Known about the structure:
Layout: H1 5-19, H2 23-27, H3 31-49
Helix pairs in contact: 1-3
Amino acid sequence: MTYATDDLYDEVAYVAYHFHWDMDTILDLEHPDRRRYVTQIARLNRLATSGGR
């Protein structure tokens, strides 16, 4: 199974934007680990915009 290139670029851009990690570091992550970072960043963003609720 392959991972859609656009989805991969979206994940890399999202993590890079928030963590300021370089592309090689992010691409070295296993897919489940990278997805977990994406999920956690999204959760933190939701908490920040909702006032922590």
